[in-house]
Amino acid sequence: MKIVDILAICEGKLLTPDVDVSSEIKGGFAGDLMSDVLASIQAESALITGLCNPQVVRTALIADVRLIIFARGKKPGEDILNLANDEGMPVIASPLGLYQISGRLAQAGLPSYETEMNLFPKN
Amino acid sequence: MSDQVTLSDSDAGIITRVEELGYELKISQVMTTNVVTLSPDMHMIDALDLIQKNRISGAPVVQNGEVIGIISTEDLIRSLRDGRIDRKVTDYMTRGLITAKANEKVVEALKTFAKKNVGRLPILDENNKLVGMLTKGDITNGLLTALQRDYQAEELIRYRASHLFEDIESDRTSLILRYRIIKDDFLHGGAASNHIKKALQRLGASRQIARRCGIAVYEAEMNLIIHTTNGGFLRVEIEPHKITMEAYDDGPGIEDVEKALTPGFSTATEQVRNKGFGAGMGLVNIRGCVDEMSIKSSKESGTNLYMTMYLDKTSS
């Protein structure tokens, strides 16, 4: 799914004007805990989060995330946007909630890019 | 699914860079400067000779340094069809010229080409004197040359970095990166890890290796920021066959290492959790990312976390 399509679906605003909105996003992941993101997000996906600090961008860079969507009307500050712009990381702000965005994107065909965790590992 | 029509990331990158270059390059950098010009008293047959001899598709008509019109192959064909090849160029030239300025950006010329139905633009200086000609072909050539320069510069950096180990002879060569991590410095949290990840990529590590090392060292970096008394240090040693990452601090030490390794166990404060950390997954994540992990911790000397990634079994 292209960033430009995701932008429309989550009724969002693109906050990094220089990025290529035609680039492809392969899946989605929603979460507020960055350790959870690092533990189970697959590369080249969109990260939908209600957390709003520079660590979100750094986590995204480390985990090869291709798009950050700040949910629940969170407005990322200049420090976040400067970092995102410097690193070419696309950032969208959406007025919708995490569940709403995830549901809409899943319905539109964007698969979950969250690795399932083994609840009861053998060792 | 439709891999042939969708652009790969690298292709998308190049297209964006071309667009960028359109805004960076000036027309003067890509235009043809040795312009073949015609004078108003020439006849169409002279123009035909000149255009044919120089293998060009048109030429401006210049009077006292100023462009007063342009003769294209189309104008030549018109005169030939009329059987008027003996007429003056001023009778057949296109007037009301569309021009561009030499110090304008290439993107401006691209817009003009898209809007107006012209094949070439006379390029003028500030005093409206003709200094060059520009065709779409000139722009393509200029962009390709600039792209190649870019590509070569990045390739050179990558080449130098990835051949570092081959270029230096020793019994055992390694590169050591060190970062000081400051307690409670959430603003810069993760910056060192991103530098480490980039360095690994430049040194030729695969995407997977760089990502796994990045995640492990990022968790370790956040642990230093969150849990230490005085912050600590990250030390990454890169060798051709393995990457050793170490995070060390001088306290307060982990009370129960076994417990700290339980998924979900956390001693982090509410404040830290509000920042998105302290989920009790840090050490668990690290163990899942690297080939070997070990912890030494005591109240007296603080915590040392060792993480090792072997490069032999995976392509590096």
Summarize the structure.
The complex is a heterodimer of chains A (123) and B (316). By secondary structure, chain A is α/β, with parallel strands linked by helices. Chain A has helices spanning 3-9, 34-40, 54-62, 78-87, 98-107, and strands at 13-14, 27-30, 45-49, 67-70, 91-93.
Termini separation of chain A comes to: 38 Å
- On the 0-100 scale, what is the average pLDDT of chain B? 87
Which CATH architecture of chain A?
A: 3-Layer(aba) Sandwich
Strand order of the largest sheet of chain B: 6-7-8-10-9
So what's the overall shape of chain B? elongated
Which residues of chain A form runs of ≥5 with pLDDT under 50? none
Structural class of chain B: alpha+beta
Radius of gyration of chain B: 32 Å
Query: Treating each run of at least 4 consecutive H or I residues as one helix, how many helices of chain A?
Result: 5
Which descriptor suits the 3D outline of chain A?
Answer: globular
Q: How many structural domains does the protein architecture of chain B include?
A: 2
How many strands, which pairing sense, and closed or not: the largest β-sheet of chain A? 5 strands, mixed
**Sequence stretches where pLDDT stays below 50 over 5 or more residues of chain B:** 1-5
Q: Your description of this structure?
A:
The complex is a heterodimer of chains A (123) and B (316). Chain A has 123 residues and is α/β, with parallel strands linked by helices. Helix content of chain A is 35%, strand content 15%. Chain A has one domain: Udp-n-acetylmuramoylalanyl-d-glutamate--2,6- Diaminopimelate Ligase, Chain: A, domain 1, CATH 3.40.1390.20. Chain A has a five-stranded mixed β-sheet, with helices on both faces. The radius of gyration of chain A is 14 Å and the shape is globular. Chain B has two domains: 9-141, CBS-domain (Roll), CATH 3.10.580.10; 172-310, Histidine kinase-like ATPase, C-terminal domain (Heat Shock Protein 90, 2-Layer Sandwich). Chain B contains 13 helices and ten strands. In chain B, the strands form three sheets. A five-stranded antiparallel β-sheet of chain B has the order 6-7-8-10-9, with helices on one face. In chain B, helix 1 (9-24) packs across helix 6 (106-115), helix 1 crosses helix 7 and helix 10 packs antiparallel against helix 13.
